[in-house]
Every structure is written in structure tokens, then in C-alpha cells.
From TrEMBL:
Residues 596-677 form the Penicillin-binding C-terminal domain. It catalyses: [GlcNAc-(1->4)-Mur2Ac(oyl-L-Ala-gamma-D-Glu-L-Lys-D-Ala-D-Ala)](n)-di-trans,octa-cis-undecaprenyl diphosphate + beta-D-GlcNAc-(1->4)-Mur2Ac(oyl-L-Ala-gamma-D-Glu-L-Lys-D-Ala-D-Ala)-di-trans,octa-cis-undecaprenyl diphosphate = [GlcNAc-(1->4)-Mur2Ac(oyl-L-Ala-gamma-D-Glu-L-Lys-D-Ala-D-Ala)](n+1)-di-trans,octa-cis-undecaprenyl diphosphate + di-trans,octa-cis-undecaprenyl diphosphate + H(+). It comes from Sedimentitalea todarodis. This is peptidoglycan glycosyltransferase. InterPro entries: Beta-lactam/transpept-like, Glyco_trans_51, Glycosyltr_51/Transpeptidase, Lysozyme-like_dom_sf, PBP_1c, PBP_C, PBP_transglycosylase, PCN-bd_Tpept. The gene is pbpC. Coiled coil: none annotated. In the C-terminal section; belongs to the transpeptidase family.
Length: 680
């Protein structure tokens, strides 16, 4: 008898082992579907807040989650409600299956399911059915295979990625953003219970279409979890009274144009981290839309905010609305559109003139009729003001004085200054002419902001950047620190719009020919903001002026940016601050070369150091040798007088310091020569 029993036991064990081996082979032979599903490309701000997401195939919202970014209380509620032995079972839960079968026999219908979370994942990634025994058996096989190839955390993450929540929503993050308007890392008990309940029947429980069914399902989850002790009874009761969301919320679409640019530039990246501040971006987009609407029909607008100390672009708005509402052609990113800058290049021209020793802010310059060949510029209002200080000429944005300075500097030098600042200016054709001073060149808003950022940083600052983890590009020195400060000092003296603070923002407005573009660009001690308004198709906007349309928006944007503006920097030590009468004689009044000389004296020539020389920085002085001209000589280094009254052809000046310097010698008749040297 014992022998027979022993043989029977051995036979049973062998049969069980054989069955186990066959089951193992059956599971191992399962054809696993892909588990790496496509998830939405995300664009995030400097603090990792979502700016924009893009749908995947078939227009589905499916955002990649991690357990670390999902509320712990929700995860506990999900597992206790759906699969309380999730962390222990091998993919199937025999106890849950026996319970479900017994309840079905007792009630004559299915009362509860025996599917585990792993089985639900198997169904989701295979997109299979559950209504037939063959489908259920396939899910059991696939679930057990998944458990052998993936960790529990990976399986739970797959559920959080693929679970359906109604419509085109898949995954916990898409559901939380669409139904609750927030990421799922901090949920109330009512919110968590709703997100637990929806995947069981996502279409019949959609809160926007079937709010009563959604509420009933949520409350059943809360009631069961309260009995299980997962949610305190008082919290569960309070949560059951909470309102159900009534509609789908739109996904974030901040900095839409910049997000598109980031995605195009790196199409293989799943996540793009930008320098944008989502809070600031969200606060500025409505005021830009409001300003464009008030300005007139079919008006578009664009705005950029940057930190000129770091180069970070903090807000970028390419149009008032990302679409074609009211004919605004909102899909066109006007921060990148090439437009005429109007008068916004004038500060650069004056800065170069200061640096080259042509004028000083207090120099007198004549505003009157002038003609260069066939070109006879006129002021915007058609009037002339006679002798006027350079400071006032820039503040009043007069045309004839700046054209005179452009003629002296040469248009090529203006273009080179733009290039050194990091701005990509486009000529309509041929060589640059004098008209570039009045907007006869193409440039976009971002490059104009780059130019003014360089002015704000003393003539040399970092280039603008939009990607958070990339170094800001380096730009060449645009102006000397003294010339840049002089420009800022003049622009800060402009009268602001009514009610705006005075003397704290250095700004310039501009209006292009035919009233096609209205500009305002300004900076304080830390930030620079650029504003453009016009029509995307370039048609005129009658009566549009930068001072009327763009300037108020500029100051309003600064108000949204921060409550207290950063002060502008003090003048550099070498700055020459005095009235016109105290200036050296050649700087007291600007006289163009065309009518400057009535005698036959040759212009001075700097023989040493020659242009482009590299000199030893050692020593306190540098020797200059001059030929020609008429004594006495005035010498400027980087726009500042460093020597005057010299009558000999060879004399010493103070060492201008390490790096590049522009040396200008001006003789007693106002004639000049200049060289650029480098001190190493």
C-alpha cells in the first residue's frame, strides 16, 4: 500500500513538473507586442513646467509618466482598488479569479473582474478584447510573459502610459491635464478616485458627457477604499460631494511658435527644455492679444523678453493668437519675420559715432536740408530744427543728423556693427546705402532685441539663447562701454507714455516706411524687451506709429515682468560728462567732411601704431606718431579723450588696457584718422 502511494505521489509530481515545464514553455513562446509606445513630444520651461505637448499618431494625447511624478496616494488607491496583490502575483491573481468566478455563479452574471493590472496592460498594449475565453487566455499568457521580462515598476508605468480616459486621452498625465488642468503629482482624494474609475469604462463615464455616471463610479471607488482604510471616512465623505469636471481643458500651448522651432531644430528629441518662464509667458500673451485687437483689424504683434545679463529669452510671443483668427495669420512667427526696423538702428549709429570720436552727446549738429547725390533725406514731420545737440537729435529721432553721421562712418561700418552684435541684417540688394539708418535694411525682432541687449551690457554681452542647457553664444564687442552708456543715458531721457515711470527704461521707438511696422525696444539694468506690431502680410497700417502703438505695450510688459525695475548702470570712469562749451574744440560742433575744410592742410595720419597692430600691454603709456594735420592734436581711445593739446608729431598716451581699442587722432581743424589695435 505504501509503495503504491509512493509511486502515485511520484507520478503526480512528475506530471506536475511536466505540466509546469509545458506552461513555462507556453509562456516563454508568447509573442510580446512592442512595449515602447510613442509618447508626446514635450516642451518645458526653465522650471520644467509644461509649455506645450504634441499629439502622437491618430491625434492621441499620450504623455510619458514616471512613478516619481504621480501622486503616491493615487497609486495606492489604484492598486488597492484594481489589484491589491499587484506587487506579489506573477501576472495573474488566482484568488481574484476564484472570487470573480464564485460571484458570477452566485449572481448569475459578472459582478467583479479578476483581471490584474498586468493583464490590463497586456490588453492595452496588444489592443485585444476581453469578452471571449480565447481573449482572456491570451491576456493571461501575455501578462505572465510580461512579468518575466519587465519589473513591476515598468509594468505599472505602462499602465499609467496607456490606460484610456475617454476620447483621445491615454495615460494618467494626459487625463490629469485634460480633466483637472494640472499634472498628477498632487491630487485630492476626489480627483484621484475619478482617475481610478475612468479607465474601467472611459466612454460611458466621460465627465463632460456622462457626469452622473462619472460621479457614481468615483463615489464607488471612494466608498470601497474607505472601507479598506485607504481613505479616511471623513475624507471619503467630503470627496463624494466634490464637483465633477464639466469639460475637457485645453492642453498648454504657451510659446507655441518657439516650441515649433525647437521641435523642428531637433526632431529626434522627445523633450525640449527652454529658457522660457511659463508664468511670465502666460501673463504676457493676453496683453499682446488685447493690444493687437485694439490697434485695428488684421493686426498682428510679437514680443520678446530677455535677460541681457545671461542671454536667456524669458518670453517669446510670435503672434497674438496661434491660428488665423480675425485674419491675423497667427501661424506666422513674427519674432523671426524680416521687416524694416524704422528708426530703431539709430542708437547703434550714434554709439559708433561716439566711439569714433565724431561727436559727443553734447556736440551741436545742424538739422537742415542736406543732399547726398540724389538722396535728400527729410525728417518724419517735414520740419528742420537748425542747430541741435546730438542728445536731442537722437531723442527726437531726427533723420538728417543721423544720415550725416552714417555718411561719415560709412554704411559698411553700420552693417559690421550689427554683425558684431549678433544681428543678421539683410540688404534688399547691392551694397549698403545711407538709407539703412532709416530702416532700409531687413531685420527681425529677435535680432533687434539682441542688438539692444548688447547696448544694455555696455556694448558687449552674451548672445540670446532659447535652450536651457546650451551655452549662450558669444558675440563680439559692438561698442565701447562708454559709447554704450552714452546711448543708454540718452534713451533713458525719452519721455515715457503717460503714467509710465520716467528715467528708468532706455528705449527707442520706430516706424517703418508706409506705416507697415511699429516698434518699441527698451531695457533696464537686467532685462530687455522688444515689441512689434503690424500686419503679417506687410500691408500698411495707416496712422500706426511706434510711439503710439508699441511704446505703451513695452512699458506694460515691463510692469508684468516685475514690480521694481533694475537701475541702469552708472557711467564708466572714463566717461566725459560736460556741456558743449567744455568739450575739446573738434567735438563742440559736428562738421561733415564735405564742407569742413577751407585750407589745404592734409588730414592727419597715424603712422604708429599701424592699423591692426598687436602691442605689448606692459607699460603705462603707448607712443603715437602722427604725420600731417594741424596741431594741436586730440586723441580718443574707445571714444574717450585721453590726450589733448599736443603739438609735436610724436607723443605718449595712457595705455588703453588689454584687448582691442580704437585710437582716433583729431587735429585742430577737425580732421581725423583712426586705427584699431590689440593690447596683449
Amino acid at each position: 500500500m505504501r509503495r503504491t502511494a509512493l509511486i502515485t505521489l511520484v507520478a503526480l509530481l512528475l506530471a506536475a513538473a511536466a505540466l509546469r515545464d509545458r506552461v513555462d514553455a507556453w509562456i516563454d513562446a508568447a509573442d510580446l507586442p512592442p512595449t515602447l509606445a510613442e509618447t508626446s513630444v514635450e516642451v518645458r520651461d526653465r522650471d520644467a513646467n509644461l509649455l506645450r505637448a504634441y499629439t502622437v499618431g491618430d491625434g492621441i494625447w499620450r504623455l510619458a509618466p514616471t512613478l516619481a511624478t504621480v501622486d503616491d496616494a493615487y497609486l495606492e488607491m489604484l492598486i488597492r482598488y484594481e489589484d491589491k496583490r499587484f506587487w506579489q502575483h506573477p501576472g495573474i491573481d488566482p484568488l481574484a479569479m476564484l472570487r470573480a468566478a464564485a460571484q458570477a455563479l452566485w449572481h448569475g452574471r459578472a459582478v467583479s473582474g479578476g483581471s490584474t493590472l498586468t493583464m490590463q496592460v497586456a490588453r492595452l498594449i496588444e489592443d485585444g478584447s476581453t469578452g471571449r475565453w480565447a481573449g482572456k487566455l491570451r491576456q493571461i499568457r501575455l501578462a505572465m510573459a510580461l512579468e518575466r521580462h519587465l519589473t513591476k515598476v515598468q509594468i505599472l508605468t505602462l499602465y499609467l502610459t496607456h490606460a484610456p480616459y475617454g476620447g483621445n486621452l491615454e495615460g494618467i498625465r494626459a487625463a490629469a491635464l485634460a480633466w483637472l488642468g494640472k499634472e498628477p503629482y498632487r491630487l485630492t482624494p476626489a480627483e484621484a478616485a475619478l482617475l481610478v474609475a475612468l479607465p474601467q469604462s472611459p466612454e460611458t463615464r466621460r465627465p463632460d458627457r456622462h457626469p452622473e455616471q462619472a460621479k457614481a463610479a468615483r463615489n464607488r471607488v471612494l466608498a470601497r477604499l474607505a472601507v479598506a482604510g485607504v481613505v479616511p471616512q471623513d475624507q471619503a465623505h467630503s470627496a463624494q460631494q466634490a464637483r465633477i469636471p464639466q469639460h475637457l481643458r485645453p492642453f498648454p500651448q504657451l510659446a507655441a511658435h518657439l516650441s515649433d522651432r525647437a521641435r523642428r531644430s531637433a526632431p529626434d528629441k522627445q523633450r525640449h527644455d527652454l529658457t522660457i518662464d511659463a508664468r511670465l509667458q502666460a501673463s504676457l500673451e493676453p496683453i499682446l492679444a488685447e493690444a493687437a485687437q485694439q490697434a485695428g483689424p488684421r493686426l498682428s504683434a510679437a514680443l520678446i523678453v530677455a535677460d541681457h545679463q545671461t542671454g536667456d529669452i524669458l518670453a517669446s510671443i510670435g503672434s497674438p493668437a496661434y491660428g488665423n483668427a480675425q485674419g491675423q495669420q497667427g501661424f506666422v512667427d513674427m519674432t523671426q519675420a524680416i521687416r524694416s526696423p524704422g528708426s530703431t538702428l539709430k542708437p547703434l549709429i550714434y554709439g559708433l559715432a561716439f566711439e569714433q570720436g565724431l561727436v559727443h552727446p553734447e556736440t551741436l549738429i545742424h538739422d537742415g536740408p542736406v543732399q547726398f547725390g540724389r538722396y535728400a533725406p527729410r525728417n518724419f514731420d517735414g520740419q528742420f530744427r537748425g542747430d541741435i545737440r546730438v542728445r536731442e537729435a537722437l531723442q527726437k529721432s531726427l533723420n538728417t543728423p543721423v544720415i550725416k553721421l552714417t555718411n561719415e562712418l560709412g554704411p559698411a561700418r553700420i552693417m559690421a556693427g550689427l554683425s558684431r552684435a549678433g544681428a543678421d541684417a539683410r540688404l534688399p540688394g547691392g551694397a549698403p546705402g545711407l538709407a539703412i539708418a532709416l530702416g532700409g535694411v531687413g531685420i527681425n525682432l529677435e535680432d533687434l532685441v539682441q542688438l539692444y541687449a548688447a547696448l544694455a551690457q555696455g556694448g558687449h554681452g552674451p548672445g540670446l539663447r532659447t535652450r536651457l542647457h546650451e551655452l549662450a553664444p558669444l558675440t563680439d564687442r559692438t561698442l565701447s562701454d562708454v559709447a554704450a552708456w552714452q546711448v543708454g543715458d540718452i534713451l533713458s531721457g525719452l519721455a515715457p507714455p503717460p503714467g509710465a515711470p520716467r528715467g528708468v527704461i532706455a528705449y527707442k521707438t520706430g516706424t517703418s516706411y508706409g506705416h507697415r511696422d511699429a516698434w518699441a525696444i527698451g531695457y533696464d539694468g537686467q532685462h530687455v524687451i522688444g515689441v512689434w506690431l503690424g500686419r503679417a502680410d506687410g500691408t500698411p497700417v495707416p496712422g500706426a506709429f511706434g510711439g503710439d502703438l508699441a511704446a505703451p505695450l513695452l512699458f506694460r510688459a515691463f510692469g508684468r515682468l516685475k514690480p521694481d525695475l533694475a537701475p541702469l548702470p552708472p557711467p564708466p570712469p572714463a566717461t566725459l560728462i560736460m556741456g558743449a562749451a567744455g568739450l575739446p574744440q573738434p567735438l563742440q560742433r559736428f562738421r561733415p567732411r564735405s564742407n569742413r575744410f577751407t585750407d589745404t592742410h592734409d588730414a592727419p595720419k597715424l603712422l604708429f601704431p599701424p592699423d591692426g597692430a598687436i602691442l605689448d600691454r606692459a607699460g603705462e603709456t603707448v607712443t603715437l606718431k602722427v604725420r600731417g594735420g594741424r596741431a594741436p592734436y586730440l586723441v580718443l581711445a574707445n571714444g574717450q579723450p585721453v590726450a589733448k593739446g599736443h603739438r609735436r608729431s610724436e607723443f605718449d598716451i595712457p595705455n588703453p588696457g588689454t584687448g582691442y581699442s580704437t585710437l582716433v587722432v583729431v587735429d585742430g581743424a577737425g580732421q581725423s584718422d583712426r586705427v584699431t589695435v590689440r593690447m596683449d
